[in-house]
Design brief:
Elements: H1 6-67, H2 71-77, H3 84-87, E1 90-93, E2 102-112, E3 115-121, E4 124-125, E5 130-131, H4 145-151, H5 158-168, H6 181-185, H7 212-216, E6 255-256, E7 260-262, E8 272-273, H8 279-287, H9 292-304, E9 314-315, E10 343-346, E11 356-359, H10 366-370, H11 372-379, E12 380-381, E13 387-389, E14 392-393, H12 399-403, H13 410-419, H14 436-439, H15 445-451, E15 455-456, E16 461-470, E17 476-484, E18 491-497, H16 507-510
Length: 518
């Protein structure tokens, strides 16, 4: 029997070690390749996400270009508030392979009978919301105007309303149910109140009584819809009714910081300030846009004020009156509607002669509102401001926001909602005015005087959700943007990333080409 030599044993051990080394190297190389493959996939996915983000940027630039069009161009393309052709599945990057074909879609929350319901393709007018930053300026503490306006918004109670107003106003005196610096100083961590205009709606989360659930509602992924996984009746909203979906998007759906509109003529020029102190200059400017009798009556109204009912004097034709250009104005016009049905008593030239009483050329009738008074509103304003913030768009506001307007009753709101035609979204008809409230008998002249400072059919700031995506890949980017066209050039005033909240809507919502894809 031949025994193996010690050299044979040594060679066997070396072979075993080599096999172990090869196995370890194979495992190491395999792990490295897997790691590299994962890194490659992650890098590629990150790149695709960046490309999707750029598709969103393309969508925003597209919207800015649309808002930069003049009204005739805009109207020829249809409304920007509800326009599937202009806002759905817009191709940005074409490619033979669907996975590399990039598009964007623009979404906003739609309405039904004055309540948010479902989606539409287009923009949302920020003037359809209640502007928080104008509340304090309009506040009448004796009548609690600002608080009452906030209490019209679903989910806001007296504590939240007063706390918001305390956060906005410049003083350090807490309201009945509110909170000022003394409250926030006791928190951990402590912080200071704003005591001024908000810079973002998210800042409301710092206000006493405002929670994330109250601010953004059940719609946690910000898709404008309540998905199956977004179960209602929880937390801060558990005790609040939501029968009509009022709280699906929380109070943020009804609030804004950005509603603004231009005060310009149909030709885009600044309107005439009816409270100009120079009477001859005012008359000459008015004569360019309205009749001589109308201009004369306005100057006489400014100089002598409205005549009381039953004021003595002889009725006279406006054309028979000779204005005294040396007479200083005694009255400021706070609303152009004050001129409707007014009378002015002009003193006679001779001491013992009775004054001349002038009847307004604008009377409380349909002919006035559909013709001459509409022209007056087109070209004349009560000040020289180029812009005005905070007025509510009657054609687009929800029921709660309409109810927040001072002087607006539930009956008036019901009639406004019945009158509105939801299939005909307005976009750039800034020369139109809500005179149909009077011609349709929805409000009286006195009611119109009360609500007129708060209402409009215009608005030059818009919001929307822009979604960038590829047809056959999962990376998707979303952002909620606010765009302002009230200046010379449309601009972005707010951009909030939503990609981290998930894809949002189903792929079929984004475009027809995706409906048969997973």
């Amino acid at each position: 029997m031949v025994r193996p030599s010690s050299n044979s044993k040594r060679f066997g051990s070396i072979l075993l070690l080599v096999l172990i080394a090869v196995a370890m190297m194979s495992l190491t190389i395999g792990s490295y390749l897997t790691l590299m493959q994962n890194e490659h996939t992650a890098t590629r996915y990150g790149g695709r996400r960046l490309q999707a983000r750029m598709l969103v940027e393309s969508g925003v630039e597209y919207l800015l270009a649309l808002l930069d069009q003049d009204s005739e161009e805009t109207q020829s393309d249809g409304s920007l508030l509800d326009n599937e052709e202009l806002m759905r599945s817009i191709l940005v990057a074409d490619d033979k392979t669907p996975a590399f074909r990039g598009r964007f879609t623009v979404l906003a929350n739609d309405q039904s009978e004055g309540q948010y319901h479902d989606l539409r393709y287009g923009l949302e007018n920020e003037s359809a919301k209640l502007n928080l930053n104008t509340l304090v300026a309009d506040d009448d503490e004796e009548n609690d105007t600002a608080r009452e306006r906030l209490l019209a918004i679903p989910g806001i109670d007296s504590e939240v309303a007063d706390s918001i107003l305390d956060w906005l106003d410049s003083d350090d005196s807490p309201r009945e149910f509110g909170a000022e610096q003394s409250h926030y100083r006791e928190l951990s961590p402590a912080y200071r109140t704003r005591n001024g205009p908000l810079v973002a709606l998210d800042e409301l989360l710092m206000v006493k009584g405002v929670t994330a659930e109250l601010l953004y509602g059940y719609d946690t992924n910000r898709s404008y819809l309540v998905d199956d996984q977004e179960l209602p009746a929880r937390g801060a909203l558990e005790q609040l009714e939501n029968n009509e979906g009022e709280l699906n998007r929380g109070i943020s759906a009804y609030l804004t910081l950005h509603s603004l509109e231009r005060l310009v003529t149909p030709e885009g020029k600044r309107k005439i300030n009816v409270n100009n102190e120079k009477m001859r200059q005012l008359f000459n400017r008015l004569r360019k846009v309205i009749s001589k009798d109308e201009a004369t009556f306005i100057v006489a109204y400014r100089q002598y004020g409205p005549a009381a009912d039953g004021a003595p004097g002889n009725s006279a034709a406006i054309s028979a009156v000779k204005l005294d250009w040396k007479k200083e104005p005694q009255t400021k016009i706070t609303s152009l509607f004050d001129l409707v049905g007014a009378r002015v008593s002009v003193p006679a030239k001779k001491e013992n002669d009775p004054p001349q009483v002038l009847d307004s050329p604008w009377q409380d009738d349909q002919a006035t509102y559909s013709e001459s008074f509409s022209t007056l509103l087109d070209y004349v304003a009560i000040n020289s401001a180029k812009q005005i913030a905070g007025r509510v768009n009657l054609g687009e506001a929800t029921r709660p926001v309409l109810q927040s307007i001072p002087g607006m009753t539930e009956i008036i709101v019901d009639q406004i909602l019945s009158h509105r035609d939801g299939t005909q979204r307005r976009d750039d008809q800034d020369s139109k005015h809500p005179l149909w409230l009077l011609t349709e008998g929805i409000v009286t002249l006195e009611e119109m005087k009360q609500i007129a400072p708060y209402i409009t059919l215009g608005g030059d700031v818009f919001s929307a959700q822009v979604i960038g995506y590829f047809e056959e890949t999962t990376p998707r980017a979303r952002a909620e943007v606010v765009l302002d066209r009230s200046g010379k050039t449309p601009r972005i005033v707010s951009w909030q990333e939503l990609s981290q909240l998930g894809p949002g809507v189903a792929r079929s919502v984004l475009g027809d080409e995706l409906e048969n894809r997973k």
